[in-house]
Amino acid sequence: MALFPVACEVADRGPAFTGMRHFTFVVPLFAALTGIGFDWLMLPRGRRFRFIATGAAVAVFVALASNAVLLVRLHPYQYLFYNPLVGGLEGASRRFATDYWVNIMPEAVEHLESYVDKLDGPGRVPHRYTVAVCGERASFENEVRDHPDLQWTADWKSADFFIAPTHMNCDRADDGTVIAKISRVGVLIGVVKDRRALAQQAAHQN
Question: Which segments within 48-186 are labelled E, that is strand?
Answer without folding.
Answer: 129-133, 150-152, 161-165, 177-184
